[in-house]
Amino acid sequence: MMFKTLAIVLNLCIAGFTGTLIVTDWDQVMVEDDWIATPADNICGIKNPKQVSNPGVISWQQAMDETKEMKKIKRENIDKTSALGITLIEAATRKTRNACQKVMNTENLDSVWKNISHVRKTPMDITHKVIDILKK
Predict the structure, then answer these.
(1) C-beta separation of 64 from 70 below 8 A
(2) Which residues contact 34 (CB under 8 A, 6 or more apart)?
(3) What is the mean pLDDT of the chain?
(4) 73/90 Cα distance (integer angstroms)
(5) Measured by CB atoms within 10 angstroms of the end CB, which terminus of the chain is less buried, N or C?
(6) 3-state DSSP percent of the chain in helix, strand and coil, to 5
């Protein structure tokens, strides 16, 4: 285990990092320039985090809450597990995903995620651009 930690520390030093690295979960360790994400958090675009180079990130619930469908659920106190609630949530999801796709294309992003991180890079937050599209 010491050798794995040493190898990661050396890679980080070569990449220009200094400090102490504490690894608690070997399955989450990504070496070099990989983005760290769970495939379930992918909204659209490239689905494999190892192939991502220019991702966007969105506050999914914030964008969903701005759709007419989710506002109707809240305003009319519709049960989300009822047939109408499920239909409205599916429509809100479809609209939000389509808006993400539009922003991804206009901003030349290769993917959009609910959550994605990188050691040295920050993904573009497209939440407000998506909300602007949803409000039209």
Answers:
(1) yes
(2) 49, 50, 118
(3) 84
(4) 12
(5) C
(6) 50, 10, 40
